[in-house]
Amino acid sequence: MNDNEILEMDETLDFLEEEAELGMIDEDMVYPQEFLPTYETIQEGAPVKKAEQADFNGKHDSLFFNDGVRRIDFVLVYEDEDKKDFDKRHTFQRKKRRREYLEASLMKMGMALEATRSVVDDKLIFVKVHMPWDVLCTYAEVLHIKLPIQPNDLASRPSPWRFFSCVTKHFYPSEDKIGTEADFYTAPFEKDRLEYFYVKDQDNFFTPSMRSRMAYYILNRAPYEIRGNIKKFGITKLLDSGVYKAAYPLHDCRFNVRSTELGSPNERLLLYEEWAHPKSFYKMQPLDLIRKYYGEKIGIYFAWLGFYTLMLALAAAVGLGCFIYGYHTQETSTWSKEVCDPNIGGAIVMCPQCDLECTYWRLNSTCESSKKLCIFDNFGTLVFAVFMSVWVTLFLEFWKRYQAELEYEWDTVEFLEQEEQPRPEYEAKCSHERINPITRAKEKVPYTACGRCIRLSLGIGTVLFWILLILASVVAIIVYRLAVFFAFSAKLRAQDLKELEPFREYVTPQMATTVSASIISFVVIMILNILYERVAIWITDFELPRTKTEYENSLTLKMFLFQFVNYYSSCFYIAFAKGKVVGYPKEPVYLLGKYRNEECDPGGCLMELTTQLTVIMGGKAIWNNIQEVLLPWVKNLIFRHCTQAGSEKVIPRWEQDYQLQPIGKLGLFYEYLEMVIQFGFVTLFVASFPLAPVLALVNNLFEIRVDAWKITTQFRRMVPEKAQDIGAWQPILQGVAILAVATNAMIIAFSSDMIPRLVYYWSFSVFPYGDHAESTMSGYINNTLSIFNIDDFSNFSRPHNTPYWFKNSSTCRYRDFRNPPGHHKEYQYNMQYWHVIAAKMAFIIVVEHIVYFTKFVLSYIIPDVPVHVREQIKRERYLTQVIIHEANLKLVTKRLKPPEDDEEKPQHPKGKEEKLELELDF
């Protein structure tokens, strides 16, 4: 049978399976007798035993089979079809056939299985999986698991904080509960060199997380069906099709009750008490125990989140100081006092900001918003923006050093990409052959070069389409802003609405529009996120990456690009587009030929950007907590209530874990994404919102403990995974850090009013030689407002109504630097406009170059790997080479040694053996 015939048969059988599911044909017609997967087909006619059937022996929180000796490394759960009350069992028979074939495959691979019926629901069957010692040794070598070979003999360097240990010890987990783990040199495990490894106890040589990882590896590669030369395998496929309801490793105890069973380390209880419990919120995280229990991938995430939160404390302190400085200077700021002064701001009549329905208004109506703007728009903001640019560099460089230490301590230094095994979904699709460019050997791949290009092109096109959809939603929100601003202006400025008079000082059309538009923008963002999430996963599945790391990196890039545009596009619009192209009252600029572009307040758009950031950051934090914490807790509560057993029944450990929520396929992906988006808000727009680091710090202090509580108490235990670093998020953070320098410089230049003030202070102030700097800012407001003759209004723009106090006025003011009416260059930009533009461009160039140079110097002088870590890595590599050398030497000398019964042949003298050893060492 050739490949084409097999593929045609596979397609035919898939079609027949669908027909059988619908009950249109009989199940026996789907699988002819020669294709029935039976236990005999596993080992060429040799029968294979089924999983041992055992009743629950009543032990509570047991981590072992009923014999009390074999440890449970994984649990599979399925629903017994024989207990169902359906007449049609077509689908159930096929599921049962596949399940039995998978279990037989697992037993052929050396694993022990034991099946136990649920004590709560007799339809559920729990299959417990145990890996014997030989199987563990085999797959530890396959997965390149590093295990101890010798205790660390390098003297540890004393901590610089040891003198404060009497104080700092209270901020660390209790040493009585979580002791310090012994430090060993490690090497990749090799079954043939077992004597060189530090095997103190076979039962505890492989940790439970290692055993679970190896068990999951086998489950993903065990076949469950064979059709001719086509083999289908992997527990993931069976979970998706409902053959199994769940597959998970076991927690070692209840999170709040100590297990009394011999061999239970109670690490879950320790994590809850010293990490996840609210009373331990002030303590440092027990990262070594987190890594030991959940694996390196979980450990590196919490290490990164804790380090990021610690660095945020410094940024939050400086940002809070900047905010306090702005708060205390809002009443003394010259330009805000001029806006609020009845004789200055009250005497300045502003032009309408929309056509026909809007009317004239006094400048002092924006008094309160101008005072609030002073809190965020001051010279302290400039200092803080530069500080944050340096802070980002320090954060990334020090994180690299800390990550290098964790890589060594957690044995992930040599965790290379080529060591990672292909995904089961990738291996299942391998039907084409190619020549490996490195080994020059034939290998199976799922697609040709042309097919890969088609898949990538389709993925890129879909991502671009959704990004354009986001931009379309942003344009729709802009149109909403223009229409609503028109409506608010008509009502709030209307002369006959006397009841709004007390609120006009606090509720401006700009503020009302910004708040409502920010809320709508947040809702649109959440909806688009839900839709695009499924699209991104579908595209990545279609691209079929080879390894899980490649899969996650591809999905990470797609999701971040989408969410970057989704979350930040409205902020970029307010910061760099709003109020920049509005024309002037005689010739306003229109969007889509209908809506007049909206203008900023006389003090700029910075306050609106701050409002937008507050709404999105606050709403996002609340939504994530509801989605990540409240929903799993409610689901678990309902599940326990619906499946509650009688008081006389003891629920075993595997069934307790089944009642918890399952971990999603993407695991920590959404946790990273949430924090990286927050990192963007903290760095990209910090010049407009100095309190962003404070809010992020408060959120992260809760986030660490909430995530810890969630995965420790509400979710099943995750399958431990190896990880060297935070993956694709590292270059994304570096890109955001580089972009943050430009965005903050441009916010200060174009959204803030700082540069025009400095230009006025040094060049156009009325009192350049005053005794105080404050006196030189007098007249700034009047200087930044141009004059417009109301007779120059077009019929389309002229307001219908005028206030009673505007009867004798012939001019109004608008925010711009233009020549007054009657000038020979009427309404054209004046010289001050070009001075301000030149100052803005010079400011951006100078600040960017200074900050980028500082970032380069800091990156150069701070090494990525600490010196003591380099020494330990070299020492470990040396010991590994010595072990390999000794093993090879024994093998060589054994081959050179003559047989014992041959007495005539001379023995090798000791000197020759030493010479051989030196030559091999060389």
Automatic annotation (TrEMBL):
Where is there biased composition of kind Basic and acidic residues? 905-922
The chain positions of domain Anoctamin dimerisation read 64-287
The name on file for this protein is Anoctamin
Look up the domain of life of the source.
Eukaryota
Protein localization: Cell membrane; Membrane
Q: Which family does it belong to?
A: Belongs to the anoctamin family.
How would you describe this protein's topology in the membrane? Multi-pass membrane protein
Domain named Anoctamin transmembrane: residues: 290-876
